[in-house]
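Hi R.,

Here are the chain sequences for the assembly we discussed:
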Amino acid sequence: MSDATAMTTALPGPSPEVAVTKDMVRRGLIVAPLLIAICGFVWGLDGAYSSAYGIAIVLVNFALAAIIVAYTARISLGLMMGAVLFGYLVRLGLIFLAVLLVKDLSWISLPALGTTIIVTHLGLLVWEMKYVALSLAHPGLKPSARHSQELS
Amino acid sequence: MEAFSHIAAATGLTGDEAKAAAAASSAGFAYGLAAIGPGIGIGYLVGKSVEAMARQPEAAGMVRTTMFLGIAFTEALALIGFVVFILIGL
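And here is the predicted structure of the full complex:
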């Protein structure tokens, strides 16, 4: 297929990245109390607040990335490519802004915030990878035994 | 330490101020450099994914899933650079 066709092809079907992100957000909300408790134990109440803020940053970042891909893929693959690249810059800028706005507030603990961002981001991805690798046919959602029987 | 006293003497800053300024600018460079690699990686990843989806649209769902996870994993490198930046220089 030529490059011109690649740039104008649209994918109007379902958005697997939205399903993956919903799954990650759900898991993120499940583990959030544990992370907040750990950070609260290590860094005190400031650490707990910062950890909650860090988790929110990571989940919103995932959601924004998924929305950008899902929305632009319905228009064209070329637009999706551009949107993902500029979206990367914009999202990094938004994360920077989100941290810059709160860095001097009394309740913020930068070590707790930074640790939470890295641990939550990588942890959720690895967790999700396990399920995606289990079932690439149903991205992000491990099929139930009943659903698998219906398909076979 | 001697370098900081030279900078401090040349700029009129105190030693601690010069050290803080050097840390801030180094952190900025570190964040910028940390964002370049993932940027190249994401560009390459998405370019190849678009090529794959255009060649084989019926596999687009699988490609998009792995592409999205690949983007997120690559972005983790930039986030690590960002965390180093906020811990050292912000």
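Chain A has one domain: 16-151. The mean pLDDT of chain A is 84.

Let me know if anything looks off.

Best,
T.
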